[in-house]
Amino acid sequence: MNYAFPIDALLHSLKYRTNLALAPVLADLLLAQIDKTVLPDFIIPMPLHPARLRERGFNQAMEIGRQISKKSGVPLLPALCRRVRDTASQTRLPWKEREKNIQDAFDCEGKLNGKRIAIVDDVMTTGATLNELARVLRKCEAVHISAWVVARTLPGTP
Length: 158
Hints:
The chain is α/β, with parallel strands linked by helices. The chain contains six helices and five strands; from the N terminus they run H-H-E-H-H-E-H-E-E-H-E. The strands form two sheets. It has a three-stranded parallel sheet with strand order 1-4-5, sandwiched between helices. The chain has a two-stranded antiparallel sheet with strand order 2-3. The longest helix has 13 residues, at about 60-70. The protein is globular. Pfam families: Pribosyltran. This is ComF family protein.
């Protein structure tokens, strides 16, 4: 889905107004777009840095991922990966600087030998954050990594 009204308003309300009741709604919208004949072995929510988590009080990707896991039966691995570098908010950076900003921001512990992984996040803009986490997951020997995002900001969107 495009990151436009009404999805943008719903995501904003979840993320910045702590409207956690929207997580199941957003999970349903995301699940409606997923081919359930090829589900992954595990779901990994996009990690927040501990400082951002303390500031916000919750991880919106975790809340959406928890609902998707519950509704799909795919196990959620919330502690496998962590954000080890407190990066500048990607939303405040020009598109071209986002990849450099997110480099080496994640660490994942454990082996995913041959497993299929779905990374859950709320919004994808350039894909830099998802690509960086996927790079780290490949080092853990995951063989197939999908990005499950509620909304996508298209190039040229303000």
